[in-house]
Amino acid sequence: MPITVRADLAAIPDYVPGRKIPGAVVLSSNEVATPPPDSVLAAITEAAAEVNRYPQWSSDDLLDRLSGRLGMDAGRISIGAGSVSLCQQIIQAMCEQGDEVVFPWRSFEAYPILTQVAGATERRVPLTADHRQDLDGLLAAITDRTRVVFTCVPNNPTGTVLHAAELDRFLAAVPDHVLVVLDEAYREFNTDPDVPDGLRLAADRENLALLRTFSKAYGLAGARAGYAVAPAQVAAGMRKVAIPFSVSRLAQAAALATLDAADELLARCQVVIAERDRVRGELLAMGYEVPESQGNFVWLPLAERTVAFNEHCVDQKVLVRAFAGDGARVTIGLREENDAFLAAARTFPGRAQ
Ligand code: PMP
Fold this sequence. Notes:
The chain folds into two domains: 7-36 and 263-346, Alpha-Beta Complex (Aspartate Aminotransferase, domain 1); 38-260, Aspartate Aminotransferase, domain 2. The model has no long low-confidence stretch (mean pLDDT 96). The chain contains twelve helices and twelve strands. It is of the alpha/beta class. The structure holds 4'-deoxy-4'-aminopyridoxal-5'-phosphate. 4'-deoxy-4'-aminopyridoxal-5'-phosphate binds at residues 30, 82-84, 108, 152, 156, 183, 185, 213, 215, 221, 226. 4'-deoxy-4'-aminopyridoxal-5'-phosphate is lined by residues 30, 82-84, 108, 152, 156, 183, 185, 213, 215, 221, 226.
């Protein structure tokens, strides 16, 4: 008998890397387009001199720094190699075989994959007609087997948000045995004053975990660092299931340096925000439906026109993230990159429908 991998892995889609087209404008991953400040590069270079040594077990320097900065006990913070590994750690720490994970759909692509890999059962709750997360639907999907409910604010890929009053109501209504995860990967791009700071919500709650990342606003997608703020017992569980030493010396040094450069990096987000609003305005003027986005991307719910739109953009050497039958997500890049995308959108034959 030849060796085989778990049969249920066949149901998990393979990762499809973005197409490589020389000279193309790449707006298909939610990165920031600007390179790191010199101070961050210098910190990475300095850390590189010691890569013969293992990194700290719990990224203690970053942990201390975040604890002070957030005013949060270090026992409630867990650091990971990007927030996607923290998603995985939460599911692994919370779920046994057959336990349920509820999430809005469409949302971050990793939620269903990590759920299946952990052997848990997914419950997808469709977005509302206006592309928002359906909190009543999420509540209705909770059963005795549910252990985790994800919400994503702003939501990837739609850019839509949830407001303080509705989140407060939701958190109060979720049964005690369920952990709510608020994924705030794009929080620094939000300008809606009614969106709560997850930290305020988490401060006095026993059932909420936050996920934050250095990959987006802090520009370290290639370094891999993120953190969770969670109830102490959840943070402890996350540490147990973590892959040892997965946060490298370089990642930790880079993350610390971005905190020193936070003013500069957050000022760059303002440029992205202005471009996002310009791109959306132009798309609306062309007749596209584009929900208001609070992320560093816009969403075009093109439904059955998505594949044709994607092919047209590829022909114009602009790469977007297409979800067949659903829509296309376009990351906000540099002004000239956004202009290349807008030119492609303008000439899409199927745009006026
Ligand atoms: N959450 C959301 C909503 C995301 O869109 C992403 C990245 N696309 C992540 C988490 C993970 O980001 P990272 O692992 O780079 O921190």
